[in-house]
Amino acid sequence: MATGRAEIEFVDAGGCTRLAHLYQSDPLRILFPNSGPGEPETGALVTTSGGLVGGDQISIVIRCGTGAVARIVGQAAEKIYRSTGKDVCIDMSLIAEPGSWLEWLPQETIIFDTARLRRRTVLEVATGARVLAGEIIVLGRTAMGESVTGGLIHEAWDVRRDDRLVWADAVHLDDDLPVTLAANAGLNGARAFASIIYVSDDAASALPLARELLPEGLDPTGLRVGATCVGDVLIVRWLDRDAQRLRDAYGKFWAEFRHHVADLPAAMPRLWAI
User: Fold this and answer.
1) Cα-Cα end-to-end distance for the chain
2) Torsion of CA 217, 261, 60, 157, to 10 degrees
C-alpha cells in the first residue's frame, strides 16, 4: 500500500507563468515536457507504480496563482487493480486564483474487475478565474474482453466559488454492478463514461458553444452526450459502449472548446496520442 502526495503551484511572474512550488512523493511524479507554441506551462502527472491497489491513498493539490496560465495532464491511463476489500482513495484539489486559467486533463481511469475506487475532486475557483477539468472512467480492460462484475466506484465532484459550495455531484456504483450497468436508468450497457467541467464567470454564455461542438448524428446504442449549466458551472457528460470512440470524441471536443473560450491551440497534448 502506498501513500503518495503531489503539490504543484504556478504563479505569474511579469506576464510569464513560472513554477513556484513542487512537492512529490512515491508513487507520484510530475514531469515538465516542452509545452509547445502557444500552450500554457504544462506538467505531466505520472504514477510510477504503474497502477493503484486497494489501500493506496493519493493526494494531489494543484494551485494556479493570480494571472497564471497552466495545464496538468496525465502521462498515461491510470489503472485501478482488483481489490480483496480495501479502497483506493484519491483526493484531488484544484485551486484557481483570480485571473488564472487551469486545465486538468487526465487520461482515462481503467477499473479492473472487483477494483474499489473512491475519488473526490474539489475545484476552488475564485471570481475571474477559469478551470477546465475532466475525467474518463473505463469499466474493465475492454481490449481483453473483461467485464466488471463487482467492486466499488465512487466519483465525487465539489465546486466552490469564493469559498462557497455552488455545485456537487457524485456517481456511486456498488454491489451488483452488472445490473446497474445494464439498466436503462443506469448506464444502459455503456462501458465508459466521462465528464468535462468548465467553471468560469462566462460558463452560461459558453453553453451554446458547447452544444454546438458536441458530436452530431448520435447512435442511441452508442455514444451519448449532453451539456448543461448550473450557475457558473458548465457540465458535459459522455456515455459509450466503445471506450475508444468516447475518448476520441472527448479529445476533439476538449481541443475545440479550449480554443474558443481561452484562445489556446485547438490541439491535445502529445501525450494524449501515445
Assistant:
1) 28
2) -60
Contact in structure between 109 and 77 (CB atoms under 8 Å): yes
State percent of the chain over pLDDT 70.
98
Each residue's pLDDT tens digit, 169-197: 999 998 778 888 888 888 888 899 999 99
Q: What is the pTM of this model?
A: 0.95
d(Cα 247, Cα 26) in Å, to the nearest integer? 28
The grid coordinates listed for 29 are 511524479
Burial (CB < 10 A; 0-12, 13-18, 19+), residue 259, is: middle
Q: Tell how far CA 185 is from the center of its chain.
A: 24
Percent of the chain beyond pLDDT 90? 80
Determine how β-strand 28-31 pairs with β-strand 41-47: antiparallel
β-strands 152-161, 116-125: how paired? parallel
CA atoms within 13 A on the CB side of 150: 6
